[in-house]
Amino acid sequence: MNTNRQLHRSTAVVTGTVILTAMVALPAYARPDAGAARVSHSTPAADGGRCWLARVGTQFVRCDDLTGNGVSAPGFVSQR
User: Are 54 and 80 in contact (CB under 8 A)?
Assistant: First the structure.
């Protein structure tokens, strides 16, 4: 009878140790979704189709799209 209890206890200890080790060794993390591909609807520029970063007023602009998440563009960025 004592051997049976000992077996159950050691099985429980080993199982708990394996579960705790797996939780510490294999942490979960989130990966961002790539999302859909962005399509630019602007026409190719005279500089070979490249769109350089510029500013209009205080906003960053690239390929006729506002960028910069609403952050004010500094004065050294060329103005369009």
Answer: yes
